[in-house]
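C-alpha cells in:
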C-alpha cells in the first residue's frame, strides 16, 4: 500500500492513506536499504502487519520532490507566510528572513496579511506598497469577515503547504476556517511551543482535505539561514532579477557598487525602498554574524 507520513514520534511513523485510514508504521531496514531517514511529508510504500491494530512496516520511500531542512518536511509545494496587518505590528525583518529562508530552499512563497478587518487603510496600503512589487503573491486576509479565505482555500488545494509566521497572527484560525475538522487547536500548538524554549518540536502535517496538507511551524524555528553568505542574499529577492543583468559589475550585490541597476530601480521607485533597506540590514547582519 501507499501513503504519506503525516507524523513521526519516537521511531513510529503515522502514514495517511486516504480511505484506509492512518497506519502506525515502523521503518525497519529503510535506512539500510535506501540510506535515508523517513521524513514527515514522505510518500511511502508499506506492508500491513496487522489490519485490526493498523500496524505496518514501511518498505520504501518514494522519490522526493524536495526536502526542507527547516522545518524538516519532504515534498513541500509552497509556503504560506502569515503575518498580521496590525496587532501585532508585522516584524518585516522576520518576514523577509522567512521569505529568504523558503526561497533558498526552492519553495514558492505566498504572503498573507491577516486582520484586515481591524487595520486602517494606511496600514494596508503601506504593506501593499512594500510587497506589491516584490514578485511574491500577496493575499489580504481576514479570518473574521472571511476576506481572502476562499483564495487561500484554492491555493492550498492539492498541495503540501508549510504555514509560517509568528504566533498571534491567526494561523490556526485560518486553518480551522478552511477545515474545521483539521484538529488544529486555535492558539494552539505553535504558540505553546514558542513559549517553551526547550521543547522539542516535531513537524506534523494536518489534513485539509484528501490531497491537501498543511505543516504549521512557529516563525523563528523555520528560519534556515545557516552558513549563508551575504553575497547569496540577493538571489532571494525576486524583484531584483530583472535589473541585476544591467549592473556594471558582475556579481554586484547592490550595496556599494557604482552603476548598480538595482539601486537605480530603488531610486526610481520601481523597487520598494523599505524592502531594499531591509535587504541592506539583513546583508549587514549576515556579514557581522560571520565574525563571531
Ligand atoms: Zn547591482
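Residues out:
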Amino acid at each position: 500500500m501507499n501513503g504519506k507520513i503525516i507524523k513521526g514520534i519516537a521511531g513510529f511513523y503515522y502514514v495517511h492513506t486516504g480511505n484506509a485510514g492512518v497506519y502506525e508504521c515502523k521503518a525497519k531496514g529503510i535506512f539500510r536499504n535506501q540510506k535515508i531517514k523517513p521524513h514527515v511529508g514522505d510518500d511511502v510504500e508499506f506492508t500491513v502487519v496487522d489490519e485490526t491494530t493498523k500496524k505496518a512496516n514501511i518498505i520504501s520511500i518514494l522519490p522526493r520532490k524536495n526536502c526542507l531542512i527547516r522545518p524538516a518536511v519532504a515534498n513541500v509545494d509552497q509556503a504560506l507566510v502569515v503575518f498580521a496587518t496590525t496587532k501585532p505590528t508585522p516584524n518585516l525583518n522576520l518576514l523577509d528572513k522567512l521569505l529568504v529562508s523558503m526561497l533558498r530552499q526552492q519553495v514558492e512563497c505566498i504572503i498573507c496579511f491577516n486582520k484586515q478587518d481591524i487595520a486602517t487603510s494606511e496600514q494596508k496600503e503601506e504593506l501593499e506598497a512594500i510587497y506589491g512589487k516584490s514578485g511574491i503573491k500577496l493575499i489580504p486576509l481576514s479570518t473574521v469577515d472571511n476576506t481572502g479565505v476562499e483564495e487561500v482555500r484554492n491555493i492550498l488545494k492539492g498541495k503540501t503547504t508549510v504555514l509560517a509566521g509568528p504566533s498571534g497572527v491567526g494561523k490556526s484560525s485560518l486553518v480551522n476556517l478552511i477545515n474545521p475538522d483539521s484538529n488544529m487547536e486555535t492558539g494552539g500548538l505553535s504558540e505553546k511551543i514558542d513559549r517553551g524554549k526547550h521543547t522539542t518540536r516535531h513537524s506534523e502535517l494536518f489534513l485539509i482535505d484528501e490531497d491537501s496538507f498543511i505543516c504549521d511551524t512557529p516563525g523563528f524555528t523555520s528560519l534556515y539561514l545557516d552558513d549563508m553568505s551575504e553575497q547569496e542574499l540577493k538571489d532571494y529577492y525576486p524583484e531584483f532579477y530583472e535589473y541585476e543583468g544591467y549592473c556594471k559589475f558582475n556579481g554586484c550585490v547592490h550595496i556599494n557598487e557604482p552603476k548598480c541597476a538595482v539601486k537605480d530601480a530603488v531610486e526610481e521607485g520601481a523597487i520598494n525602498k523599505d524592502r531594499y533597506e531591509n535587504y541592506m540590514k539583513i546583508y549587514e547582519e549576515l556579514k557581522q554574524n560571520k565574525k563571531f
